Amino acid sequence: MKAAQHRTTDELWLDTLEEVCARAAHEVKGVLNGVSVNLEVVRSRSARSNGDAASVRSFAESASGQFERLSDMSEALLMLCRSPRDPVEITPTVKQLVALLDPVAKVEGYAFDVSEANGAGAVRARGNVVRLVLASAFLAALDRKKDVRCDVELGDDAIVRITAGDDTIQVSPDVSAAAERANIRIESDGGCISLAFPRAGRRAHERA
Amino acid sequence: MKKDAAKILIADDEQAITSGLSAILGDEGYTIDIAGDGQKALERLSSDSYGVVLADLKMPKLDGIALLRELQQRQIPTECIIITGAGTVETAVDAMRQGAYDYIEKPLNAEKLNRLKALIPKALDKYQVQQKNRELASKLEGLTHYGELTGQSDSMREIYEMIDKVAVSTASVLILGESGTGKELVARAVHSKSERAKGPFFALNCAALPKEILENELFGHEKGAFTGSVNEKPGAFEMASGGTIFLDEVAEMSPDIQVKLLRALETRMVRRLGGKKEINVDIRIVAATNRELQEAIAEGELREDLYYRLAVVQIDLPPLRERAEDVQLLANEFLQRYSTQNGKRVEGFEDAAWEWILAYHWPGNVRELKNAVERAVIMARGSKITLNDVMPRHLRGGGEVPASLTINVGSTTVADARRKLVLQTFASTGGDLGRAAKLLGVPVDDVRRELMVMISSSENGAGAAAVPSSSPSSGESDAEAHIVRRSEPVAAARAVPPAAGVKKPIKKEEVRRK
Questions:
Q1: For residue A208, what pLDDT is reported?
Q2: B91, B107, B137 — which closes off a domain?
Q3: Are B310 and B287 in contact (CB under 8 A)?
Q4: Do residue A44 and residue B27 have CB atoms under 8 angstroms apart?
Q5: pLDDT at B397
Q6: What is the DSSP string of B326-352?
């Protein structure tokens, strides 16, 4: 029974990851475009007999900056595609998803603002459930077509609050069911969705 | 287009791309502006002129396709090249359908950037050509004169536009039109607007000259070519080399000369009469005729191959009766011209004279109108031209103006045709409602109703027609109905603003008071 539930959750996560990747892939092309265009300036200007280093420096730096963005995105993608090591840390997972979805928000004209909590935030749920719930909430927030704010708080639970405008952010019933099975509480209040993940290494009475 | 004159707008939200592209195209000599999203791009394009806009397909606020749509809707002139990351056929087709000049897929590597560099000059050329056309169209809008031609009707503006287009080419031009429509003026305009304007313009009337003389005039002769030819004489082809020859009434040319003309057109070489030497000529032929050319070809009077040589571009000049809105403009112009020439202070036309001028069908076209006004100015005793001054004696007889009416099939409704017929008949009777009704075979009220409808519609313009009111009670006799007479004239309706010295047409309210 539990194995079947896990399979269902993993399948849901793979579907969600596919959507995240599809949205991010377009932005990968955009970043590559930035690299390519700036390198072309460097190439053509350096080829001139009177080409001076100063006139190409900013373009080389810009290309380098684009490489870093690309690196962040591919790193995030690699991490999310790997099997998670339990217990999973909440903040790095949030960061990985934001690294992929922030360019998507930007191209639509919206900002992605993340406020992280200090300290380790390992949670007790399975890694793929945590990723599924977070990614689904982020995608739902992106669909609101508003600036997205994400606050991570570490208390008895690891709480992730995602806000985007005033419209209700909701995840699908399948995702809600998977979250419930993993003791992850989801609350929607106006334009804010709160995800409460039970912390790892804390007993129930401590949390109480 | 010179690169330094060309402005390009880059619409992209990625600063790394806008700065890179800006540097690449700036190095190519273009002036670059940047817009960070589609909305800003639209604002810049609305307030400034850009030959080309490079727009990212995915942008905040307004994406590339939406931007294209806005450009089309707002008729903002520019050529848009879409830069797309979504390399699907559907996206490309959609972009092209929305009016994109072309599209390029990301990432812009060296090869694609080279393609972009090659695309931009072509897009700028297209923009420049279209810009010229737009400037021309806006120049022609509201134009009343073109060269020596006068007219503000749509048909004349089309002629002006056509002359502008054809003048820059080297194509032969055939001008068709009734006698007196201004075919030679069109030919002169084609010449003066062309690159040959500094060269000579030779006009020959093929119908006015006997065959031998015409041949001699066209091709010239060598000394001793015929009895009495004591000197050599170059022909029009030689003398007009580098310019234009206008051959009027070309269909009247004899078959022998047609063959020679055809050869000259094909080879660009002529041989004088009695000469052996072929002489190169650089000539443009503008021909004209008032004949029905298909008929002339069928009857063997005009060679079909010559017709096709001459009619590379054909300009059809409308008769004056089909551009009634030009009649007032022309009449006023002739009035001013001949008043000055004759040293007379004639300020305008009396209403009855206007009525006749506007209603008459002018079979001799502009030339007849010009002659009529010249005669009227000479005959005028007062400061205004009367009906008797302007109307030729042979038309004065019964007081009715012989008139014909041209109805354009396909663009005229039955109601319009009826209205035109009523107006023309009414005018031809000198404003006699009863007689007009009798001639039309309809009740007087029907005539009045039609005229009132016409007044209402023409009051949106500048002119209005005066229509006599009727007594609502009794059935009116012809005498009662004949309210508007020569002494109480009618100002016929025309949507043409009255020129200086022309009395304002009577408004509907004034008519009702009458």
A1: 46
A2: B137
A3: yes
A4: yes
A5: 55
A6: GHHHHHHHHHHHHHHHHT----EE-HH
Number of domains into which chain B is organized: 4
The domain in which residue A21 lies consists of 2-207
Mean pLDDT of the A184-196 span: 88
Residues in chain B within 8 Å Cβ distance of A52:
none
Please give the model's pTM, rounded to 2 decimal places: 0.46
pLDDT band at B508; cut points 50, 70, 90: very low
Cα–Cα distance, A123 to A90 (Å, whole number): 7
Which residues on chain A are in Cβ contact (under 8 Å) with B13? 106-107, 109
Contact predicate B318/B155, CB 8 Å: yes
- Alpha helices by DSSP H, listed for B98-140, are 110-140
Query: E strands of A62-147, at which residues?
Result: 88-89, 112-115, 122-123
> Is residue B24 domain-shared with residue B59, that is, in the same domain?
yes
Residue in chain A lying closest to B20 (CA):
A38
Range of the domain at B496: 414-513
User: Average pLDDT of chain B?
Assistant: 79
* A48 contacts on B by Cβ (under 8 Å): none
Q: What is the CATH number of the domain that holds B260?
A: 3.40.50.300
Do B16 and A36 lie within an 8 Å CB cutoff? Answer: no
The interface pTM score, or ipTM, of the predicted complex is: 0.70
Residue B188: the pLDDT is 92
Amino acid letter at B295? E
